[in-house]
Amino acid sequence: MKHLLKRTGWCVALVSAYAAAPACAEDFARRFALQLDEGAAYYSVTVPAAVYAASQRNDLGDLRIFNGAGEPVPYSLEAPREPARTPPSLHPVRWFPLRPAPAGQAGAPLGVTIAADGSLRATAAPPGRAQHDTDLIDAGAASHEGRASALLVHLRDDNYQGRVSVESSDDLRNWQPAGDAQLLKVSYNGSTLSQDRIELNGAHARYLRLHWLDGAPFLESIDVEVQAAGAGRAQLADSRREWREGIVAQAGPKAGEYFFSTGGPYPVDRLRLDLPQPNTVAPAVVYSRGELGGAWREVSSATLFRLHNGAVEQNNPSLQLTPDTDRHWRVVVDTRNGGLGSGALTVAAGWRPATLTFVARGSAPFTLGVGSASAVSTAVGRDELLMGASSVIATARVGEALALAQNGNGLAPANADAYRRYVLWAALLLAVGSLGAIAWRLARSVSHRVPAGDGAGVSSVPGVSGAMASGPGETAAGVTDAVRTASAAPQNAAAGGTASGASAAGATPAGPQRDDND
User: Fold this and answer.
1) What is the pLDDT of residues 15-49, one digit of tens each?
2) How large is the C-alpha radius of gyration of the chain?
3) Helix axes 416-448, 2-20, angle to 10 degrees
4) Threshold 0.85, pTM exceeds
5) Topology adopted by domain 89-237
6) Any signal peptide, and if so, which residues (predicted)?
7) Spans of all domains in the chain
8) Could you tell me where the DSSP H helices lie in 57-180?
9) Strands 346-351 and 268-274
């Protein structure tokens, strides 16, 4: 009995210790090598797409950093902060239609002259449409307020589709590329689809030149969008956006319904939907959800289009979203005008990755583990992690995924959780089996144990001792019947004695009588 109790206690202790054990490097489905420059106490690394894809939590809570001994080290995880964006200011500008410039021309183009203050003035009538391929813009005072971030070109034409490139200059002699775009204005189903924005590279220049590659349109007006100081940070943040392209959406059971998965908890803030067939226009609503079976929530809506005109093809711009880590997405297209037609809807998802900062405690090599169903976030705040003058942060890089055999105990990382579950179940079954054996031993001993006082009284009754001595195979029912028989025996004996007394009182015993004379 003592051995069984000891075994049960050890099983319970094993289960408790194993369940409460902290996460170790072998508990994670994927591990990546970290490349560090020697000598720094703190390192930061941008979370790559492969780590997002391996994570099993939407908040990257199953991410850890381990040192060479397999010990987790403190870390912080920060989502990218949206740069402060000062609302841009719009300034109407003057433009001058030009004829094609002669080769090697220097100074002001033909048809304009430069005033002392740098402003442009027309000196000739504008060229005809056949000779018009360039427009010269004078940004004027707007060029002194900040950097030009975009041009808004408002077209007079009801239907136009064409490409345009932009150059910038401060002296009308030296020109630098500043941007390009495709402009669109199309009437559709009683409404107008237009794309009149030309993104610029933040040029700080007085003059801009538009080259129309597919014929010059009739212009209604032009506005230049000027960003104040600090806008460069926002453009830098946009340039750091990562993309996962080539996602194929599957048609759903209902017409106009399409489903796709991003394949990881990427914080998607841009979504580009590419239509399968040219000359398609269709309104659409986009939904997302975190888990299968969850409720869909609407995240965006837009009119999708893909228009083809000769060598020019125009597509709807990317949808701008609040960062969304949901994996499952649904697009519902209005099918009243034919929907998207045949072919597959393809998707590109863009996001700005998070930054991970950790303390290089312990010895190298350091690794990044991710993909544990049982792990919860242990990240601390960045301010709590960084301490004093030693908080100089070096840059680390995420290397290739480690081979499965490099997970310390020889187990494949994907089987680490399964192995742990098997050990827990084995310990639990052993504990339950020990408890069952203890219960069986106790039940058996109780069924054969009779108190000393009761045994003496029963053994004095005729017939009971034989029943009790019948061996361990005697059932409880047999013992009960024996006890009942023994209890009835004294009553029958008493009844028999009374009858004998009555007979003696009313009869003379037979036998030879004695003669008194003898």
Assistant:
1) 444 444 445 555 788 999 999 987 788 999 999 99
2) 46
3) 150
4) no
5) Jelly Rolls (2.60.120)
6) 1-25
7) 21-79+354-413, 89-237, 243-351, 452-492
8) none
9) antiparallel
